[in-house]
Amino acid sequence: EDQVTQSPEALRLQEGESSSLNCSYTVSGLRGLFWYRQDPGKGPEFLFTLYSAGEEKEKERLKATLTKKESFLHITAPKPEDSATYLCAVHYGGSQGNLIFGKGTKLSVKP
Amino acid sequence: DAGITQSPRYKITETGRQVTLMCHQTWSHSYMFWYRQDLGHGLRLIYYSAAADITDKGEVPDGYVVSRSKTENFPLTLESATRSQTSVYFCASSEPTTSVRYNEQFFGPGTRLTVL
């Protein structure tokens, strides 16, 4: 069964305490892995797209990496404004409808 | 401003009533999508559209109807609302893709629907 699993479900960090979020997937024919940030009451905001194992993307304190089975979102020296739910989504197969979202990791960064 | 908008932002209705949620995008993206987001399930695809007059089912299409007469609009209709359709609904759009690399989707602000 095609699946996307994010861990941990929730993560509490102190400001400046670096950590990583995980997204593992079991699909055939990866067409793209996407990271989104979602703030309460808002729509998901696009962060990164990764297509191939070994690929990396960076934006400010965030860095996304991809292997054949999982992706990591590394957060370096987080700030309270990084608090949000981070969603991973995997597009696979030959149809635009083949998109699975993980349930997300809720990140809280305390000052 | 360019982007993707949804209306209404909040809606309360009763079981059995018909409800239409609107989605409008100004990017001229070919693809548009409707999702619902529920606690414990994450985002699930309801319907999507590759172009005007081309629509296809997603993971959870039962009880919903879509149409796309213009590229920029993609309304979602609940023909006879049920309590199980209480959810937050998101519309999204994306550029056309290659066959091996799909593009990211851009989401609207969402509509919170409550069915009593």
Chain-wise SSE layout:
The complex is a heterodimer of chains A (111) and B (116).
Chain A lengths: L2 E5 L2 E5 L4 E8 L3 E9 L6 E6 L5 E4 L2 E5 L3 E6 L8 E9 L6 E3 L3 E6 L1
Parallel strand pairs in A: 2-11
Antiparallel strand pairs in A: 1-3, 3-8, 4-5, 4-9, 6-7, 7-8, 9-10, 9-11
Chain B lengths: L3 E4 L2 E4 L5 E7 L5 E8 L3 E10 L2 E4 L6 E3 L9 E3 L8 E8 L11 E2 L3 E5 L1
Parallel strand pairs in B: 2-11
Antiparallel strand pairs in B: 1-3, 3-8, 4-5, 4-9, 5-6, 7-8, 9-10, 9-11
Averaged pLDDT of chain A, please? 95
SSE series of chain A: EEEEEEEEEEE
- Most extensive interface, chain pair and sizes: A-B, 24 and 29 residues
Average of pLDDT of chain B: 94
Can you count the beta strands of chain A?
Answer: 11
Which percent range describes the beta-strand content of chain A? over 45%
Query: What is the C-alpha radius of gyration of chain B, as a whole number of Å?
Result: 14 Å
Strand content of chain B: over 45%
Overall shape of chain B: it is: globular
From the alpha-carbon coordinates, what is the Rg of chain A to the nearest angstrom?
Answer: 14 Å
Distance between the termini of chain A: 41 Å
Residue stretches of chain B low in confidence (pLDDT < 50, at least 5 long) are none
Structural class of chain A: mainly beta
List SSEs of chain B in N-to-C order.
EEEEEEEEEEE
Distance between the termini of chain B: 35 Å
SS class of chain B: mainly beta
Uncertain stretches of 5 or more adjacent residues of chain A: none
Oligomer: heterodimer
What is the number of strand segments of chain B? 11
Characterize the main sheet of chain A: 6 strands, mixed
Shape of chain A: globular
